[in-house]
Structures are given as structure tokens and as C-alpha cells.
């Protein structure tokens, strides 16, 4: 199948991720594509349409489908039936399903269409075109769209897709871990703003180190660790085998539910 640049994109569900997708599409002053938004999430939709000339808010979800070549479904999983049931989606449209935990079979039953359906996991950093988006199945137009938003990682089957989906479930734990570090420092008498500033700086450095892809993650850990030093001590006394096994177990359980 030949890749084409999708010029008319619809988004049903204009919340956190819907907004991030629109910002990403216009990042860097791009003037295209045209974007058609569903009416719900009215405040965000109005903000986006006043900010970008190419963004229009539609009167109904059906109008979003009718005016678009590709439709991104970004409502919460529990809202999908209310948002989508009864929509007419012609077979020449491309549907991109960004809902976590909703398989393509499930979505196809709800939409009753033979149009190509692609699952995708865009992250909020698509807004700066910095998210590598996992897709399944690979479709040239969807892959080109996400390549433009920071990168695309098409995977071979839905089982592999679910593994990546489980990984994204660890993000807020990471923030909570950083918040726990600052709470601990505050409990020791450090001013909260000093603890907050310091922890942010510490882990912004980690973020920068991660962009060096010539070093493996194990190598990065080793490079930051002095033998018998403080880092080794916390890693081996806190992130020890039982703790690591508990993380594996939590991911296993999440993966089972995603399947
Ligand atoms: N947030 C993220 O980082 C990511 C989220 N996702 C997935 O994207 C989906 C949306 O998540 P998120 O953006 O965080 O959720 P939000 O709650 O921020 O946004 C969901 C939006 O859907 C709207 N909505 C609800 N019902 C309808 C309807 N019938 N028709 C049209 N729009 C409707 C809501 O409108 P209203 O405000 O009026 O209720 C709201 O604006 C989820 O399925 C999630 O799994 C995927 C990847 C990343």
C-alpha cells in the first residue's frame, strides 16, 4: 500500500491526548492538515479552534467522520459505545484507535465497518513531536502520521502491542516515585521547594542521559554507580530482587487484563 499524507484528520474525544495530538500536528508552525473535532470536551475544542485556523469544531461525531480521511478515536474506554454506536464509517476511511485496552475486534463490532482500523499509543509528548508511537497493524498512512509526531514503532501483532501498552502504565508510578523522594527530603527538614527543585534537576539529567542511545540501559546504570557507593546501596537494598519481582508481577497482571 502506498503512503499518502492525510490532510483531513478527525478527532472524536478532545481531552488530554486529543489536545496533545492537535498541538503536535501544528507544532513548528505547520499549516496543514485540517482537523475536525468532536463537540464534547467543548472548552478544549473551542481553545484549539481559536488558536489554529485549520481546526474546526463539528456539530456531531458523525460530521467528524464525514469530513475526515482519518478519524482518531480518543474517548475514554467506558464512553466508547455512547460516542461511537450508530456512526456510519465508510470503508475508505482510516480509523485510528488510541483507547487503551480496546482491541480492534471490539472497536470493529461497535462501528460495524470494514474500514482499516489501527491501534496506536500516542503519549502526551506528541505535543512536541517527541513521542515514539506504537502502532498495530502497520498502515502506511497511520505510520506516516505518527512518524511526523516524533516517530513510529509498528509491531507485528496485538500481543506485542499489549506489552508496550503495559509499559506505558508505569509512567505515573515514576512521577509518584519522584514525589516520594521529595516528601522524604521534606520530612528530614529540607524546604519543600528546595527538595522539589533538586529532584527535578537530578532526573532531568537522567532524561538527557537516556537520549544517548549508544549506551544500553544497564550500561547507563553502571556508569552512574560507584562500587560500594550510595547508588549501589539504594539499588541493592531497596530495588532488590523481591521488589523487582513485584514489578514484574504487576506488569504480568496488567498484561493479562489487557489481553
Ligand atoms: N492521556 C494520555 O496520556 C493517553 C490516553 N490514551 C487514551 O485516550 C483516551 C482518552 O484519554 P484522555 O485524553 O486522557 O481522557 P480525557 O478524559 O482527558 O478525554 C476524553 C474526552 O472524551 C470526551 N467524550 C466523552 N464522551 C464523548 C462522546 N460521546 N463523544 C465525543 N467525545 C466524548 C470527553 O468530553 P467531556 O469532557 O465533555 O466529558 C473528553 O474531552 C482513553 O481511552 C485513553 O486510554 C491513550 C494514550 C495516552
UniProtKB/TrEMBL annotation:
Coiled-coil residues: none
Gene3D superfamilies: NAD(P)-binding Rossmann-like Domain
InterPro entries for the chain: NAD(P)-bd_dom_sf, P5C_Rdtase_cat_N, Pyrroline-COOH_reductase
Residues annotated as domain Pyrroline-5-carboxylate reductase catalytic N-terminal: 8-101
Any single Pfam family the record assigns to this protein: F420_oxidored
Transmembrane segments annotated in the record for this chain: none
Domain of life: Bacteria
SUPFAM superfamilies (UniProt xref): NAD(P)-binding Rossmann-fold domains
Family: Belongs to the pyrroline-5-carboxylate reductase family.
The protein, known as: NAD(P)-binding domain-containing protein
Organism: Streptomyces tubbatahanensis
